[in-house]
Design brief:
Elements lengths: L13 H16 L16 H6 L8 H9 L10 E5 L7 E5 L14 E7 L5 H6 L10 H16 L2 E6 L11 H10 L4 E5 L3 E3 L6 H7 L8 E5 L19 E9 L4 H10 L18 H13 L4 E4 L1 H4 L15 E3 L7 H22 L16
Parallel strand pairs: 3-4, 3-5, 7-9
Antiparallel strand pairs: 1-2, 5-8, 6-10, 7-8
Helix pairs in contact: 1-11, 3-5, 5-11, 6-8, 8-9
Protein name: Nucleotide-diphospho-sugar transferase domain-containing protein
GO biological process, one term: protein N-linked glycosylation
Organism: Periconia digitata
């Protein structure tokens, strides 16, 4: 992806970040069973049961699913409504196509995958006892978003620290990693570290239904933005817009391994003469996929509109504003905004429920304004 950078002022994260830390650690220390009742009406309250035993402290792997439990959308929910990012904060309603294919959660049959050749930048601070949310860069922020999303929906998750290549760019680790893991899953969902799930309560299954991902679709990606004023950017040698490998859905079917093998071996110039051009120059494995691989496997490739799963608010080209998946090619600090917005929404909803329900012990009605 190549576009002129468009910088925007850094959002003030201190207040929301502080609240996230306050409530998260508050939940970790909160061990009085009666105070877990904000999820009334939902069974299997794992956090409440853990809190009932004063010798146990709930783990974050229990807390995250509990926080989002009342928000999660069913895989075949006919519609999904959200608040847009404009100044008016209008409601947008999206409707599934008829006869959705995926009607039940797939759980551990879906892998949320992160790939890196380096450890998380935040790990050094953590080891030194200096970890703080404010210091978190976009790589750690993105990975935390992906892991929390997997926890929310019960998906499997892996952070793969891959070896560096000697003869090509590090992003070439993607095809082999996909091939090495897909046999154990129905789907792999991969995001670059600077890409985020915009709605952590919206499951992969709903998105597969919305995008009409069919059994023959081995690889799904979103298109890059395309601007008629600069048609040379983000296009292959046939002037066809590239797909962006910052978000990839890999489905386990008969063609998948063949596609991934062809992609991985492309720079060897055996099957695809000239593909070695993309060992180092931008956009590396993405250019190779766009220039060669997709032309041999047209029926197995699903291309999404850029607006659906690429870009972020403020990108005008091709309306690439990240409706479901946001990819921050620039302004990467905004990765943390998406994560904090999701966490704060999950935390404040049960708090709001307490006051709306006039919870005894919290809300008391004073009928006369007199001193007794």
């Amino acid at each position: 992806m190549m576009l002129p950078p468009t910088r925007s002022p850094l959002f003030a994260l201190a207040v929301s970040a502080g609240c996230v830390l306050l409530f998260t650690f508050g939940f970790l220390a909160w061990q009085s069973p009666p105070r877990m009742s904000f999820q009334a009406g939902h069974e299997h309250d794992s956090l409440a049961s853990a809190a009932a035993d004063s010798s146990k402290t709930p783990a974050v792997t229990d807390i995250i699913p509990l926080l989002f439990k009342s928000l999660i959308i069913n895989p075949a929910e006919p519609s999904f409504t959200y608040i847009d990012d404009g100044e008016a904060h209008n409601l947008t309603k999206l409707t599934l196509p008829p006869k959705p294919r995926y009607k039940k959660p797939m759980g551990k049959n879906i892998l949320i995958l992160d790939l890196e050749t380096r450890p998380l930048p935040s790990s050094k601070d953590f080891e030194k006892g200096e970890f703080h949310w404010k210091k978190l860069n976009h790589v750690s922020g993105g990975v935390f978003n992906h892991y929390a999303y997997a926890l929310t929906h019960g998906y499997d998750y892996k952070f793969v620290k891959a070896a560096e290549f000697e003869d090509r760019h590090a992003t070439w680790i993607k095809p082999s990693a996909f091939a090495n893991h897909i046999n154990d899953y129905k789907f792999i969902v991969f995001l670059d570290a600077d890409a985020t799930f915009r709605f952590m309560h919206l499951p992969v299954e709903w998105l597969l239904n919305y995008w009409e991902i069919k059994p023959q679709h081995s690889i799904t990606m979103a298109l890059d933005p395309w601007d008629p004023k600069t048609p040379q950017f983000n296009s292959d040698r046939f002037n066809r817009t590239y797909t962006n490998t910052g978000f990839v859905v890999v489905q386990n079917n008969a063609n998948t391994q063949g596609i991934l093998k062809a992609w991985h071996e492309c720079p060897d110039d055996v099957r695809y003469q000239g593909c070695s051009e993309w060992k180092g120059p931008k956009f590396h494995e993405q250019s190779a996929f766009g220039e060669y691989i997709r032309y041999d496997y047209e029926d197995a490739i699903k291309e999404l509109q850029c607006a659906e799963a690429n870009g972020y608010p403020g990108v005008k080209q091709s309306q690439c504003e990240g409706r479901f998946i946001r990819h921050y090619w620039f302004d990467k600090f905004r990765v943390k905004n998406d994560f904090s917005d999701n966490i704060m929404n999950a935390i404040t909803l049960p708090l709001q429920r307490i006051f709306t329900d006039m919870t005894p012990g919290v809300v008391e009605e004073q009928k006369e304004n007199v001193i007794h």
